């Protein structure tokens, strides 16, 4: 079987060494030594400052919103459900603006038109879909014009750079997911990278029940800390992350080479690096979609419809400013297998089967 995804398995010898150190110290959570070590190593590796580890990527979005005093936001309808559910759970008044049909990211022109209609929102929450950076400069220009804060859902963008700079350095905050399905993980976990140090310090209090130095209580907070056992997994996996990203990127490039001109592929930002987290294809014809998914499943190759339904349809009670592009894409996007344990032979098996199915479908029709 070729699995859609396989989480990275930490080296058990290295991991055990870290876990033994936790047991010896008896410091299992609450900003322990492994937490501080992972924070520093991630800041150095990613090229960022003010990185705050949290318990998961959903909490990362919620903590960013709470820290930046976001009560209302315009976001993308084309993303994993957590982007929206995190906002709604937090009580953020949420609306949707459409995406670019080539990049699949929030469209700056559509965003500008939406804000021209209704300028009451506090912020923009945009997702870098499949690690493909948004047009951050255009979104920044729109945000400045309308005086909005920006949060980037960067769950897919571990290690991605734009013109040599970490994509996490754009906006007022960027959130990461370290879920087991991601390029880098801590089993469950996440992080927020803040532009400003003051926001980072406020957020660090908020994720520890709002406790200030000593026992003084400040603004009500929550418990969103990452524990030492999970940090141990992160430290173990971080040792080999360069090789992992290099391999995944090679597989991604091979997919694109084999499928270019065969199916529609996501248009990548010309100035951005890759991390090989996901590969999406778009098939407009429903019969052909079904044929490809069925052919893959018959050969024990997993695939997934991603992301469906469009979030403005799933949460239809929320305002939207027209999301026709998202509606079209969610009806035809298929996510193909891609993970660190795949081989080039696996990619050829997937792509050859897709080509064969398209040819057979064309002949039968």
From TrEMBL:
Coiled-coil zones: none
GO biological processes: polysaccharide biosynthetic process
Name under which the protein is recorded: DegT/DnrJ/EryC1/StrS family aminotransferase
Residues bearing PTM N6-(pyridoxal phosphate)lysine: 182
Organism: Pseudoalteromonas fuliginea
Domain of life: Bacteria
Gene Ontology MF annotations: pyridoxal phosphate binding; transaminase activity
Pfam families xrefs: DegT_DnrJ_EryC1
Key word Transferase present: yes
Alphabetical UniProt keywords: Aminotransferase, Pyridoxal phosphate, Transferase
Sequence similarity: Belongs to the DegT/DnrJ/EryC1 family.
Record keyword Transferase present: yes
Gene3D superfamilies on file: Type I PLP-dependent aspartate aminotransferase-like (Major domain) (3.40.640.10)
Entry annotation: catalytic residues: 182
